[in-house]
Amino acid sequence: MKLISALLLRQFLVWRQLWIGSTLTNFANPALFLYAFGFGLGSMLATVGGVDYLSYIVPGMVAYSILFSANFDTTINAYSRFQVQRTYDALLATPVRLPHIVLSEILWAALKALVNGAGVLLVAAFFGGVDSLSNALLTLPLFLLGGLVIASIGLMFTSLAKGFEFFSYIFTLWVTPNFLFTGVFWEIDRYPWFIEYIAYALPLHHLVEATRPLLLNQPVDMGMFAIHVGYLAVLTAVATAVALARFNKRLFD
Amino acid sequence: MTLIQATGLTKTYRTTNAVKGIDFTIEAGGCVGLLGPNGAGKTTTMKMLVGQTTITDGELTLFDVPVSKLSADERGRLGLVSQDNNLDPDLTVEQNLQLYGRYYGLSRDEVAPRVEALLDFVQLKEKRNDSVRALSGGMQRRLVIARALIADPELVILDEPTTGLDPQARVLIWQRVLELKKQGKTLLLTTHYMDEAQRLCDRIIVIDGGEILDDGTPKELIKRHVPTQVYEVNKPLPKALEDDLSSFEADDLGDSVQVYVNDPKQLFEKLDHPETQVRLHRPANLEDVFLRLTGRNLREGA
Ligand SMILES: Nc1ncnc2c1ncn2[C@@H]1O[C@H](COP(=O)(O)OP(=O)(O)O)[C@@H](O)[C@H]1O
Ligand SMILES: [Mg+2]
């Protein structure tokens, strides 16, 4: 625990130097989307299933900022620590062991993503897109779980990556589908059946589905809720285990 | 007290046999040099010790504990000056030291006075708030040394501490290393510089191709492998020497021949004008041992 907090401290010190830029870009992007889609598209659609369109897309926008932030930290950033800066090598000469590194990478990325996500919620509330502030607070642990799942999967990609090019595929084949096809902007049943099935597999879909009823102040289907949360937890565990195994092989063999 | 014991220590990376079943023991105190050309397996041996790579076969104990079973506290008794300056480029000089201390589990208050002392020790006090990217090669190296000392380890492993540095920077690092020796730390150092090994090490393990070729004090090694005196004789060689060259130990250096003898008389009998024919005379050194043992000149290998 002491060692993991030392590693988190390192991330915090680095982040502190750049926090304004990092926080602004992470807010600005989803805030622009919220504004453009919420007011632009929203004025045409008026409502989705009886809900004001701006409110409808808020959970997706928060999830998007988490996806973006956690993925970036655990892919490009982590890969550069791993392969370019050789930070992991330097750490492994101390009592720090690989599980400390992997857990701290994931934890830090998830915490930072949560802060960014909470920022988007604030912006959304400012635009009038959050119906229940107390429910919004309840979604924070879910968004933290969302950060953990994206971060662990990102780190798994990093443990498999052979170069930076790999991450442009990740962007196209992982980040974009998670963003577009998982019910951020509209229900996924509007897509052909195979895309619908892909969406069921993608974590962002479950994150959005788990948080949307809460944010819209709608009744929560506990069975479905458990499925969403359980799926995200299992994905986190599996991705973390794969990352550990792959890093273990690449660093120590 | 035995600090390190290797028995049949082997490392195979996928297809490369980097270390081929070596045995050695290192006692507490003094400086042991692992001397060998590039690719000899020096770094691999150190990485196995430090826990940066696994052991393929054989045994390796540190403080009488197999390296794979070392506790965090036991790891804390060891400091590594890695071959690459893998400093944290996102942090300042001072932060690099502070955080490294935290990675050893030290508290903020424990780390603070050590950072001061170490910045002083490696003469980087004025650079404390600089980014490590702004440091020269020699300064980075000194910072890596300070970093390795943050937990006040009893064993310090230095992997090529001065490779690629200019002469002044090397001398500064040698001074620090000798100072550590005086403080009673055990040092294990790799190098491919003979002068460095001869200057710093009490004992030298010569390694090449993943195998130990010999092990002893610099004096012992020289005595064991080469005659004591080296004469460099200009070409063309006098006829008498030319005809009898096979009875000497000699190396062809191109426009001259290096002849090794214990008794100079033997050689001088073959020379008619020694004062013009002998270009250079010196006592045999580790470099000569090296040529004998590895069959190649290290400086070229580097
Ligand atoms: N991570 C690695 N993967 C594969 N081969 C390696 C790796 N590290 C070192 N080697 C190979 O192992 C041999 C010994 O390398 P090394 O221990 O770095 O030698 P030295 O430090 O003496 O120069 C070399 O042939 C090197 O190419
Ligand atoms: Mg090396």
Summarize the structure.
Chain A is mostly helical and 253 residues long. Helices cover 82% and strands 2% of the residues of chain A. Chain A has a two-stranded antiparallel ribbon with strand order 1-2.
Comma- or semicolon-separated keywords:
heterodimer, A: 253 residues, mainly alpha, two-stranded antiparallel ribbon, 9 helices, 2 strands, 2% strand, globular, B: 302 residues, alpha/beta, binds adenosine-5'-diphosphate, binds magnesium ion
- Rg on CA atoms of chain B, Å: 22 Å
Order of helices and strands of chain A: HEEHHHHHHHH
Quickly give the structural class of chain A.
mainly alpha
For the largest beta-sheet of chain B, the strand count, sense and barrel status come to:
6 strands, mixed
Count every helix of chain A, treating DSSP H or I runs of 4 or more residues as helices.
9
Question: Overall mean pLDDT score of chain B?
Answer: 92
How many strand segments of chain A? 2
Helix content of chain A: over 70%
The termini of chain B sit apart by: 35 Å
CA distance, first residue to last residue of chain A? 26 Å
The helix-and-strand class of chain B reads alpha/beta
Query: Which ions and ligands are bound to the chains?
Result: adenosine-5'-diphosphate, magnesium ion
Whole-angstrom Rg of chain A: 18 Å
